Amino acid sequence: MKATAVANTNIALIKYWGKRDETLFLPMNSSLSITLDRFFTLTTVEFNESFNKDIFFLNNIPASEKEENKVFNFLNKVRQFAGTSLYARIYSENRVPTAAGFASSASGFAALAAASTRALDLQLSEKELSTIARQGSGSACRSIYGGFVEWQMGMQIDGSDSFAKQILSEEAWDISVLSVLLATEQKKVSSTEGMKRTVETSPFYPGWLSTVEKDLIEVKEAIRYRDFERLGIVVESNSMKMHATMLGANPPILYWQSGTIDVIHHIHKLRLSGTYAYFTIDAGPNVKVLCLPKDEKKVYESLLSLADVQEVIICHPGSGIKYLE
Ligand code: DP6
Known about the structure:
alpha+beta
């Protein structure tokens, strides 16, 4: 009763920000992402009657209590779904090209959902797998699929209609996503905590909710017509709007560092000089820059010239879940 799965991480073009149900990980809004080809988690799960407790190793060392709690809670949901009480051993590795800054709960819980359900021999559709992965970390439901992926928020209170689906395969449209790693020391507020505080306290959150669906429609149109400029404009504005909701939270949340703002201005300058590049920023200081593959070398080199930029990793749309025998 053992299985290994690999999941890539994803970057949201239209952000998931806010939950309507924290236990089930049900979002306040639908979101859309690109699964990336460079950052992934590889996870092996084994269930065995002889195990008398759960064990979780992350990057070859025993995981922290906080990490264990999240993972074991998720495993309890899988066990409940499968009707088993067997304990498990979990070995998980975040394979990222650099030591810090890119570890992701999206690839982590997507790989864990896939490996644990396969180890228990549950024959799940991708839709069912996405629904389960969502309950470990919301963004994980999108990493089940490759390419361009939409997570429909759903309406049901049990979450049965809240899952992701692929809208365009990774081969169908190649765009470049440059992951910009900045020098940073600061301890960050987790996405989970950041979105909770924003929903509960930010007067700007209703503004987010009343416009995000329109942004989503616009991005889907841009993807449909492979209109990169149209895509970039709405992606950048959606990310800025998410961060604006956090600035209004109490206490306010600011994920940006000075290097983050340098990258923002740099991208604006690139556009003024005729290169179509756009940025998006998640719940942290690092920036992802979107551009067309023909411009990627130029954008890459120009980003590396900025003082606070430590590393830039060029990504492209990547594949969904894979199982290793
Ligand atoms: C800003 O999926 O990490 O990256 O569901 O609480 O685990 P939890 O949050 P998580 O939040 C991701 C937030 C985001 C936007 C996005 O990926 O859509």
